[in-house]
Amino acid sequence: MLKQSLQQKLLQKLSPQQIQLMQLLQVPTIALEQRIKQEIEENPALDEGVEVEDDNDDFQNEDSTTEEQDNSDDEFDFSDYLDDDDTPDYKYQVNNRSKDDEDKQVPFVSGTTFHDLLRTQLGMRNISDQENDIALFIIGNLDDSGYLRRDLYAMVDDLAFTQNIIVDVKDVEEVLKIIQDFDPAGIGARDLQECLIIQINQLNDQDESSKIAYTILDRFFNEFTKKHYSKIIKRLDITEDQLKDAINIILDLNPKPGNSLNETSKIIQHVIPDFIINYDNGELLLTLNSRNAPELHISRKYKDMMEDYSKSKDKKEKKKNREALTFVKQKIDSAKWFIDAIKQRQNTLISTMQAIMEYQEDYFMEGDETLLKPMILKDIAEIVHLDISTISRVVNSKYVQTPFGTFLLKTFFSESLSTDSGEEVSTREVKRILQDIIDQEDKRKPLSDDKLTKLLIDKSYNIARRTVAKYREQLNIPVARLRKEL
């Protein structure tokens, strides 16, 4: 049954300015420069640099004078048109992209990949045209680590359907063996075990340790990965020293041969801090990176254009310039919004970092991680009177430079943990102590999570075993069995 009714709903809708501010807040310093350049390219009414003459007040006065002049014109009131915000924003857009849509671009990267290197080596082999086509197909299916993750039966079907090459699995496997003989060693393997065995076979020095290493990888790979060293010693009837020499050879092998070329040409990325903390007469001094405070202003050319249009008294001329006026108004409004958003961004960044610095003053004075207080997003949000989501955007990708290093802001946030005395301490302090305990343990007999829990409890930290396991995983530390060394 259909029924009509009236009801009230309370909805919260973000304005274009708020959306723009939220987007700018999460942008780090290095990306902000690109964002400003992009805005300047898209909006000719926006200029960067120190303005020679600040005519903002005069510009506003001219608008008010113009309003008085144009009020006498009944047919077209310029000031009313200037203040008319009823025209939908989409009519000013080149396309239908929303203002809050993220502009994701794929960067173009040039250089030689290991796939190119393999194709070059393939060209030096004396093989048939069909084998060459199969080899190229295999190379194209290798992942970034150099592994062939596709099943050979599936590749046989693909070759038949896509390239009209009718072969069987044996033919493909024969060509794969040719590729596995290429550099870097281990390329074209179907799993880690095969990758390491290929590299062992290509070693020039095939001594006793190499032969033991091959046997371990071929027959006892599962025991090796789980570090069941006693089983391997017993089954191979070797000494612990012989096992240690063999394992050292295995550990020198490359588990990701496809990354070899990339690692030799790595680009070092420098972190640009958003904030800088220094000492000034025993007090902490916070400054915002100057790149976060660009000099932006409305283009003088666009101000002059608006002024010329406003002074025009010819009715026909005004109608003719109506489209131009709409364009100029939209560009100037967009520039003002962007300038205001940048200024609000600066104020939000500095107030948030100021609150963090004051909250963690002891830590920033000494640089000792054990002095970090428990701090969550809500604590800072209540101090600066902003929403938690806003604080999250600020700290997520921002860095602060201190006298003892440059750190990501979000690393200063941590939950609390109580001690026997009832004192609240930061979980980061507990993680630091846990890391120190594991670093100092006997690697021949590494400490289990139960023993780690007992040691932390002995240090007056009230902590459960599952919490210790969680912190250990967050520190990327494996379980005791996998930390064992000979």
Explain what the structure shows.
With 486 residues, this protein is of the alpha+beta class. It has 4 domains: 16-84 and 296-335, no CATH class; 115-183; 186-253, no CATH class; 275-292 and 341-483, no CATH class. Helices cover 52% and strands 7% of the residues. It has 23 helices and 8 strands. The chain has helices at 16-25, 29-42, 56-70, 78-82, 114-122, 129-140, 152-163, 169-179, 192-201, 208-219, 221-225, 229-236, 240-251, 260-264, 300-311, 315-320, 322-359, 361-366, 377-384, 388-396, 427-439, 449-458, 465-474; strands at residues 46-48, 275-280, 283-288, 296-298, 399-402, 405-408, 416-418, 424-426. Strands 3-2-5-6 form a 4-stranded mixed β-sheet. Strands 1-4 form a two-stranded antiparallel ribbon. It has a two-stranded antiparallel ribbon with strand order 7-8. β2 (275-280) and β3 (283-288) form a beta hairpin. α5 (114-122) runs antiparallel to α6, α15 crosses α17 (322-359) and α22 crosses α23. The radius of gyration is 33 Å and the shape is extended. The protein starts with 15 loop residues before the first helix and ends in a 12-residue tail after the last helix.
